[in-house]
Every structure is written in C-alpha cells, then in structure tokens.
Amino acid sequence: MNKLLKISVLLFLALVNPSFAQKKDYNEEFQLQNDNDILTFKRKVADRYYSFGVHLDYRKIIREESKLYLFTAKHKNNLKKVIVNWHAGIEGYTSDQTRDKQENGVFVAFDRPYAGWLFAENTITAASSQSIWYVKTTLGVLGPASGAEKLQDNFHVLINNPKLENWDNQIQNEVALNLEFGVNFAIIKWSHFDIHSQSSASLGTQATFFKQGLMGRLGKFNTIDNTVFYHTNLTYEDTPPQSEYFLEFGAHLVTWGYKATIQGRMFGENTNMNTDGLHRVNVDVSAALNYSRKKFTVFFRHHLITAETSRGRHFYYGSLGIIFKI
What is the CATH number for 207? Predict the structure, then answer.
C-alpha cells in the first residue's frame, strides 16, 4: 500500500510539474486502475472470486522511423500507429465464504481456491484505420510470493473489516508465462454507434483460452486508430485527440483450456486443492462509461462473470481508472 501511494504521488507531481505543461505532443500516458467487488451495483457485497486488482500501465507511441515500427509495417497493411504498453498488476482471488465447507470447525473444502497473482506484461499494438492487432507477453508469480494476501489484509485493516481466514490454503508458489494474440475490428460503423468484433487467444501456464466477443460504443468517439477505447489516442503531433464520451457495452464468450488461479500450478503437485474443476466455457458481460479530454481520461467499467467452476456462482466486480498523458 505504501509503495502504491508513493507511485501515485510521484505521478501526480509529474503531472503538475511545469516542464510537462510545456510539452506539446501527446505521445506517452500512465493509467491507474482499481478492480474490486465493492465497486458494483449489488447491495450486499462480499469478497468472492475475483476480489481485487491493482494495475498500473505506461504507454508510448513508437516513432515511424524506429525499427519496431518498420518491422510491424512489413506485416500489417495501412499501418497508422504502433504503441507499446508496459503493465504491472496484482490480483487476489478468494472463495465464497458462505459456501466453504467445514467439519467440526475445520476447513475442508472451498468452491474456488484462494490465489494471488503478481505479474508484468508487455503489449505491442498495431493500429490501422480498419483493425487493431496486438501481441501480449505476461510473466508473473502465483501463490504467497505474490503478496496478494498481505495487500488484502492491510486493506481490511484500513477499512476496519475482518481478515479472511483461509489464505493459508491458497495456491502454491509458481512462476507463470503467457503469450496472447488478439485482433479487433468494427463490423458496424455509424457516426454515434458502432459494434466491434474482438478475438483473442492465450497460451501459457497461467491461462490458456480462446475468447470471442462483441463490443459496442454509443456516444461521441474517435476512429479505432485514435481512441481511448483501444488506447490508441497517442500522437507526436501538437494537436490533442478530440474529446470522447461514450457508453461501451458487450459480452465475450471464453473457452478455457487452463486457468492456474483455479486449477493450481500446471507442473508439480498441488496441495490445499479441493475444487470440482474449471468450467470450460463462461461469459463476461460488461458495460462502461468513458470520458476523455486532451490529457485526461476517466472510466468506470462493470462486469458480470458467469460461474467459472461447477460449484461456483456468477459474480460481479467494478473497475475505476484514470489515464493521464505526460
């Protein structure tokens, strides 16, 4: 928590520093995002399944004379932009405590394992006026080494809530590596409404899946190569992107091959595991409000996720974030 606070203060000081105010282009940005099941429209909220996430991103548009841009241009027609994103995140997953099983006061089973996930990602996005392609590499650690338990405990102390008791049963330490590819493009385009096809596939020891979805935008928004919707509104020009304010909504169908935060580590034995297994198919339904003006963006996103295990239930969480260009 202290480290996160220090990072936030440094980023704020960078924003108000006069040297940044003199900068005329809009080629870099930071994003801070908090995911939590308290950020939902549900009256009664308890830590359940995806309990929390804290995320920090740094993005930069690549100059056209760079080797990465020239290499990408050879493989993608009508290339407009190449953007590199560095991401750091920590996530915590818990069971539904009301459905945990105990015998004579002793914990014996849960409907989803406790899991912590600390990771870093690099994403390279290639944008044209017709489509968005990306490749993402993720490296992280599952288990107590992630620090997710300590982060949640400290937050519960801060808000005067009791600590969760069963983190001792969390998934064991394991290093995980993932590679993900994705492509997005608009299939319906009107002036104030459009619908996008979004496809992605991931292979690795943390998550293996294929995801297909449809997402729509309603409101005032820019083209896909210059919009906060795909984080492509960066430029080396001294003219800021036009303001955007829109509602985004849609759903993704996910077919799972493997999910370490439920099934445990891929290699070696798993202890403290007693779950009825992973649902091979589930759905993520989401809606979001986005507002972007010059160097500043704010958004709120709400998710409904259908059951991920045979004993589990659907769950909700919200994401609140800010983006600021430097």
Answer: 2.40.128.140
